[in-house]
Amino acid sequence: MRQDWARLPERGNRWALRLIRWIALHGGRATGRALLYPITLYFLLAATAARRGSRLYLRRSLGREPGWRDLFRHLHCFAATILDRIYFLIGQLGRFDVKIFDGQLILDQVASGQGCILLGSHLGSFEALRALGATVRHLPIKILMKIEHNQTVTELLDALNPALAQTIIPIGRPETLLQVQESLEQGFLVGALGDRVAQGDKIVHCQFLGQTVAFPVGPMLLAGLMGCPVILFFGLYRGGNRYDIHFERLAERIVLEPRRRQEQLAVWTQRYADRLEHYLRLAPYNWFNFYDYWDEESA
Fold first, then answer.
1. Strand 242-251 to strand 230-237: parallel, antiparallel, or no bridges (unpaired)?
2. Quick check: helix, strand or coil at residue 237?
3. Nearest 5°: phi and psi at 188?
4. For residue 48, which phi and psi values (nearest 5 degrees)?
5. pLDDT 10s digit of each residue in the chain, 299 long?
């Protein structure tokens, strides 16, 4: 899998993003959602790389050639979750109908006092969990994040809730591993996304939507090193103001034997890929990797 996502430029500028934020906060969600239609149409026509990535993905997930309506729906779903991210960050969860599946799993994990890796993806909204944990359930959550990509968007949205911004652990710094270890020892749920390969990542190859594709092994390697549980998280956007949050236990503990480490990493990562595909099938327009994920065009 190519690292196209890391090379995609940020669209828009700081002024435009501030305007969108102002409309969301002062114009209301109804106004913001109405404006999503012309915004989505603009990106559908102008963002050729994203449109091409959407088409390649939808062809696989839908099992047919996607039409313009499918492409519009895919981009609109992404735009809707970005808008809702503003309301999640400022704690206005009362606007949303959020259903939680197997939530007792997380509550029991927190009650145990033992931290865990909370493994998600670019399927749906991870922000829904971070906001829910900070404002309602008081879940101790920290997020591993590559903050260099889309830095303008991240800075503007995090300014809405500085407390949530403090829960980020930047990836790729000398102190990253130590911060993760300390957080787990303090009982934090350390969130990570496991479906994109960045430059320099160690990988394994998994079957995913009918073809072999590279997945990063970092989250599994981290869980094995820390000796902690891995719980899967999927926050699916269901349209309107509805979100479904799913939790699943992937592993009580990941044990990596030195002589079989690569083999064992491949097994655990394939299990993650299988569950990701399961939830992707439930909500195909929630997949927000708008690039040539399977490297089809260079094959």
1. antiparallel
2. strand
3. -75, 150
4. -65, -40
5. 455 544 444 444 456 567 667 878 888 899 999 989 998 998 899 889 999 999 999 999 999 999 999 999 999 999 899 889 888 888 888 889 999 999 999 999 999 999 999 999 999 998 888 777 766 667 888 989 877 765 666 676 667 777 777 788 888 888 999 999 999 999 999 999 999 998 888 999 999 999 999 999 999 999 999 999 999 999 999 999 999 999 999 999 999 998 999 999 999 999 999 999 999 999 999 999 999 998 876 55
Instruction: Please report, for residues 170, 184, 189, the alpha-carbon distance to residue 180 in angstroms, rounded to integers and kept in the order given.
Output: 10, 6, 10
DSSP 253: -
Pick from 157, 228, 149: which is nearest to 14 by CA?
Answer: 157
- Answer for the pair 202, 88: CB distance below 8 angstroms, yes or no: no
Short-list 185, 188, 186, CA closest to 168? 188
- Record the tokens describing residue 118, joined without a space: 């909370």
